[in-house]
Write a structure and sequence with these properties.
alpha+beta, 2 domains, four-stranded antiparallel β-sheet, 6 helices, 4 strands, elongated
C-alpha cells in the first residue's frame, strides 16, 4: 500500500517537530567543529605573475618596456627548467629572505625543493602563469614577481645567444 505524498509530508514535518532539539544540537556541534577547523587551518597565500607571448615577444607587466625578446614561446617543461635553474633559485632565496651567511648547501637544497613544490607553472595559449604559495603574503608576492622577472631575463638572454 502506498502512502499519498501529502500524508508523507505531514509525517515528516511531525517527526521534525518532535526532534527539533536533537537537530538543533547537531547543527550547533557541526558549526563549532567547522569553525575550530577553519581557525586552526594553516593559511597559504598565492601570488601569480602572468606573462604574455605576443608574436614572438614576451611582454611582462613587471618589466614594462624593457622587455624585448625575439624568442619563441616555450613549453611548460622548458619554462620550469629555466625557472628552477640554480642561478634563479639562488636569487629567489635571496629575495625571499631565506639566505643566511652560514647556510649549508643541504639547507639551501631543502629550501629550493620547498620552493619548487610551492611553485606552479601553467601555459595556456600565449599566456605563461607562474604561481607561488607561501604562508607569508609579502614573500609570496615578492617570490612570484622575481620568478617572472627572472624568467623574462633568462629567456631574453637565451634568445640573444641564439
Amino acid at each position: 500500500m502506498q502512502i499519498p505524498i501529502e500524508q508523507m509530508i505531514q509525517i515528516c514535518l511531525r517527526e521534525l517537530k518532535s526532534k527539533v532539539k536533537l537537530i538543533s544540537v547537531g547543527f550547533v556541534l557541526i558549526s563549532v567543529v567547522v569553525v575550530l577547523i577553519g581557525s586552526t587551518w594553516p593559511r597559504m597565500y598565492e601570488s601569480s605573475v602572468t606573462i604574455l607571448a605576443d608574436q614572438g615577444r614576451l611582454v611582462g607587466q613587471t618589466l614594462g618596456d624593457n622587455v624585448q625578446n625575439a624568442g619563441a614561446m616555450v613549453t611548460t617543461r622548458e619554462a620550469t627548467e629555466l625557472m628552477f635553474s640554480r642561478q634563479v633559485l639562488d636569487r629567489i632565496l635571496e629575495v625571499g629572505g631565506w639566505l643566511t651567511p652560514n647556510m649549508s648547501q643541504a639547507q639551501k637544497e631543502t629550501l629550493q625543493k620547498t620552493i619548487r613544490d610551492q611553485t606552479e607553472v601553467d601555459i595556456t595559449g600565449n599566456l605563461l602563469k607562474i604561481s607561488y604559495s607561501d604562508p607569508d603574503p609579502r614573500r609570496a608576492f615578492l617570490v612570484a614577481t622575481e620568478f617572472g622577472e627572472q624568467f623574462i631575463r633568462q629567456t631574453a638572454a637565451t634568445s640573444l645567444q641564439a
